Amino acid sequence: MPRSLQGRLGLWLGLALAVLWIVAASVTALIARGEIEEVFDSALQETAQRILPLAVVDILNREEAGISQRLAAIRAYDEFFTYIVRDDQGRILLQSHAASPADFPAWDGTGFRQTATHRLYSDEAVQGTIRITVAEPLDHRAGVAREIQMVLGLPLVVVLPAALIAIVLAVRASLAPLRLFRDRLAARGARDLSPVDGAGLPTEIAPLADTMNSLLSRLDAAFEAERSFAANAAHELRTPLAGAIAQAQRLQAETRDADAKARAAEIEATLKRLTRLAERLLQLARAEGGRLRRDVAADLRPVARLIVDDLARIAGPGRLLLTLPDGAVMSDLDVDAFAILMRNLIENALRHGQAGSPIEVTLAADGTLTVANDGPVLPADDLARLTQRFERAGPDGAGSGLGLAIVRSIAERTGSSFGIRSPRASGASGFEATFRVKDTKPDG
């Protein structure tokens, strides 16, 4: 049984049509055969009644009685009806040119008879002294019946394939809205949970589409609640974290106890890591819930310069090497989203790259952003999990484990491509991340 609905409908309708046609043809053939039997029996009887008077005149006018005579054919033809005329003693007085006495049994009265090979009709005249028997081969009737069956069956060979094609086309046309619905659903991105337009769907399928859209709405509401909670929690943590950091710094400044000052420094470092984690959660919520495409394209180069200049103050002079094209790099990607992904990639390189080695940041004219740093080669298993949430590359657990996950989320929601590799393309060591903006628009 085909798995597709189109295949099943085509198969069952085709089988039903074939069975109905065969049944109708068989019934028609049976009825036609019965009618043919009646027609041929009537022809046998009429032939006997027409020939018998002529034979009586011919026999009675003979000068000698009991003479057998075979009629000669005027021209060659297929003689389906043969006959013999006999007297009451069984002597043959007259016979057709193709008649064989062996095909005619002994006289047993008037009416219809049938042997293994012939259908016969017998009649008599002159008080039973002249008797005629007309025979027809059963093969002739069977041949006519086969021709009728062929006439009824040939359309099955010709019409049935055409009907099957018409059924397949009709079913395919009927299921076109379902295929369109499937294509719309398949074209959705991983983060797109908006309802799918089900206009034109058959009434049998429409409830299923409505149920699926209802499920998508509930999932979207659940995910939105999670994103809102993460964003609100991270936002609300900013003020108390800033206050706690200020208190830790004040404690360090006011205490003279070396142990208390060390503990206050540890508390400050922990609170700063928590602050960075809250910032990453806000960025993740922005990447997963905000609008990442704009109606108007903007040049990405000023954003790249701003981010590199900002991080260069932290990294130190000569640590970040920015390469930009001469022409504008136009894209409808939201500039805030581009700044978030670029900052995360550079901070990831600063945190995990080899200390003191330069980090190459390149924005190509086609919208490809590449961030490469030197360092040890990462195993393939580590690369495969680095874009997952809260996965860290170093054994010390430094970082939030969200930077590359945020970049991947932006790439998925904008239809862009994002990949990481180790070693980098230009060397035998290090790490390289590449983000290719989709639908980059040319300058002007």
What descriptive keywords fit this protein?
disordered C terminus, 444 residues, six-stranded mixed beta sheet, alpha+beta
Would you write up a description of this structure?
With 444 residues, this protein is α+β, with helices and mostly antiparallel strands. The protein contains nine helices and 13 strands. The protein has a six-stranded mixed beta sheet with strand order 1-3-2-6-5-4. A five-stranded mixed beta sheet has the order 8-10-11-13-12, covered by helices on one side. Helix 1 runs antiparallel to helix 2, helix 6 (301-315) runs parallel beside helix 7 (335-352) and helix 7 (335-352) packs antiparallel against helix 9. The radius of gyration is 50 Å and the shape is rod-shaped. Residues 440-444 have low confidence and may be disordered.
Strands of the widest sheet, in order across it, are 1-3-2-6-5-4
The main β sheet shows up as:
6 strands, mixed
Termini, distance in Å?
Answer: 57 Å
What is the overall pLDDT average? 81
The shape, in one word, is rod-shaped
Beta percentage is 15-25%
Low-confidence stretches: 440-444
The total of helices stands at: 9
Number of strands: 13
Order of helices and strands: HEEEEEEHHHHEHEEHEEHHEE
* Radius of gyration, CA atoms, in whole angstroms: 50 Å
Q: Which percent range fits the helix content?
A: 40-55%
Structural class designation: alpha+beta
List strands and helices in order, with pairings.
Layout: H1 5-60, E1 69-70, E2 82-87, E3 92-95, E4 111-114, E5 118-125, E6 130-137, H2 138-174, H3 176-186, H4 206-254, H5 258-289, E7 293-299, H6 301-315, E8 320-323, E9 330-333, H7 335-352, E10 359-363, E11 368-373, H8 380-385, H9 403-414, E12 417-421, E13 431-436
Parallel strand pairs: 1-3, 8-10
Antiparallel strand pairs: 2-3, 2-6, 4-5, 5-6, 7-9, 10-11, 11-13, 12-13
Helix pairs in contact: 1-2, 4-5, 5-9, 6-7, 7-9
